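Question:
Write out your own:
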Amino acid sequence: MKATAKHKEQRVGVLIDVQNLYHSAKNLYKAKVNFGEILKAAVAGRKLIRAFAYVVRTKTGEEKPFFEAIKNLGIETRVRDLQEFYGGMKKADWDVGIVIDAIRTAPSLDVIVLCSGDGDFIPLVEYLKNQGKRVEIIAFGRTTSSRLKETADEFIDLDKRPIKYLLKK
């Protein structure tokens, strides 16, 4: 069953891989992401059921104002502490958490919008489409897996209108 196009009755879930978008915006544009505009593009006039932002907490807590801003947009934050390993390596991987939330919320949704360019999500996109869900990807095209773009029902490229999706300095 091919997922249908966008219409206002669709129930939408939005999953935002904050690290993925943050690093893409920083590396491509030396700018920060406007998550309010990302959410608006993801919902596209449809019924937002739930929106999650997957964020990382550091020891310094400098991200607290950002977490507040995300909550004020009506986005639920999923927080994981940054792990620091002996030797200085740092890791905070949300991939499994995102996959679990996508699968857990999918039965009450028509559309899942994944805001990430990470090719690791290809099996998730394939699974959700096999469940009859429409899957849309929103990310910066230049840092998005080409197979992820092809696998999704729709790819919304933030590189096409970066001014809209980045915060002005």
User: Anything to note?
Assistant: The longest strand covers residues 47-57. The beta strands are 11-17, 47-57, 76-81, 83-84, 90-91, 111-115, 134-139, 154-157. The first helix runs from residue 18 to 29. The domain at 11-165 is CATH 3.40.50.1010 (Rossmann fold).
